């Protein structure tokens, strides 16, 4: 028993006052996590809106350039030479899509540029051979030079498209395993495949704009196409890579049979990574034979000169 209970009254009053002060101040001292999350979401939304405005501005500038482009000239050339049948050629359209040029307008420009460059190269070659250089050759030889230049000009756009396809495929092949890892993370976190494609396109855009563009196109096709299989097959057709076809096949099977996609993506990502490492090892193994000719032409003569020069100086 407490001998003097009156002495405990001030202690209890002090503790009650401290508890009241803490209870009053606690809501102000606690960190507002919900508000912080709302602020971060608002900031991210502002960044996305700014990015969308920038993209819209860039698209408007691109549309302005397209409006100023001489589309009518290309169309007149195609119509005058009766090349309309080639506009329906699926092979030309597919090659241009693999090079990043889409739409009927790209096919018209490609066909018209082949004719323009053929005529321009032939005229320039004949002008140089007859007027500038004044080569002492008969007329058939000059005509043969013009025909050769015309053939080079006609094949120039096709060669450019082939080189563009090769560069795009190399970039996609190099960054495809990383995109599969990101896609695997998105799918295993419960994100739908459209959101996974969109997220991967946003994240991979800094290192591979080409792959980000293809994934963005696939995301748009998944949004408005009735059959999602066409969107997946479009990605495989535009990239024309075996690794992409394997992923497309897995996506189609998952859509059709309801099989889990995460395990297939993990296996395909590992296979793509192994293929990339094998390609790097193959390139490294081919380096010594490629260095043989430069060493013989440039290094060995200098080495022989350094070794033999003192002896020659001693003799003379």
Automatic annotation (TrEMBL):
User: Which Gene Ontology CC terms are recorded?
Assistant: plasma membrane
Q: Locate the Type II secretion system protein GspF domain: which residues?
A: 180-308
Name the residues that span the membrane.
12-29, 106-129, 141-161, 291-313
Q: Which UniProt keywords apply?
A: Cell membrane, Membrane, Transmembrane, Transmembrane helix
Major location (coarse): membrane
Compartments where found: Cell membrane
This protein's membrane topology, according to the annotation, is: Multi-pass membrane protein
What protein is this chain from? Tight adherence protein C
Q: Which organism is it from?
A: Primorskyibacter sedentarius
């Amino acid at each position: 028993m407490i001998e003097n209970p009156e002495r405990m009254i001030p202690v209890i009053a002090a503790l009650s006052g401290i508890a009241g002060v803490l209870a009053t101040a606690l809501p102000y001292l606690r960190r507002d996590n919900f508000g912080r999350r709302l602020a971060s979401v608002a900031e991210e939304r502002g960044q996305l809106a700014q990015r969308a405005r920038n993209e819209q501005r860039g698209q408007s500038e691109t549309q302005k350039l397209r409006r100023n482009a001489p589309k009518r000239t290309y169309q007149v050339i195609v119509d005058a030479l009766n090349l309309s049948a080639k506009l329906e050629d699926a092979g030309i359209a597919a090659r241009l899509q693999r090079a990043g040029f889409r739409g009927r307008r790209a096919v018209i420009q490609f066909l018209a540029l082949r004719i323009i460059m053929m005529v321009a190269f032939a005229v320039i070659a004949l002008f140089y051979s007859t007027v500038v250089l004044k080569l002492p050759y008969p007329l058939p030889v000059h005509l043969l030079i013009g025909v050769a230049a015309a053939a080079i000009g006609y094949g120039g756009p096709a060669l450019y498209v082939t080189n563009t396809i090769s560069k795009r495929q190399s970039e996609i092949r190099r960054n495809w395993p990383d995109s599969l890892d990101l896609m695997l993370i998105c799918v295993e976190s419960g994100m739908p495949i459209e959101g996974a494609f969109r997220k991967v396109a946003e994240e991979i855009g800094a290192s591979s704009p080409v792959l980000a563009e293809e994934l963005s196109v696939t995301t748009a096709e998944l949004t408005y196409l009735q059959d999602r299989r066409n969107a997946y097959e479009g990605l495989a057709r535009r990239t024309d890579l075996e690794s992409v076809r394997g992923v497309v096949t897995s996506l189609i099977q998952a859509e059709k049979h309801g099989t889990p996609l995460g395990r297939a993506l993990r296996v395909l990502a590992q296979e793509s990574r192994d293929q990339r490492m094998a390609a790097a090892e193959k390139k490294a193994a081919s380096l010594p034979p490629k260095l043989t000719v430069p060493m013989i032409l440039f290094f060995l003569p200098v080495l022989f000169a350094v070794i033999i020069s003192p002896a020659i100086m001693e003799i003379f």
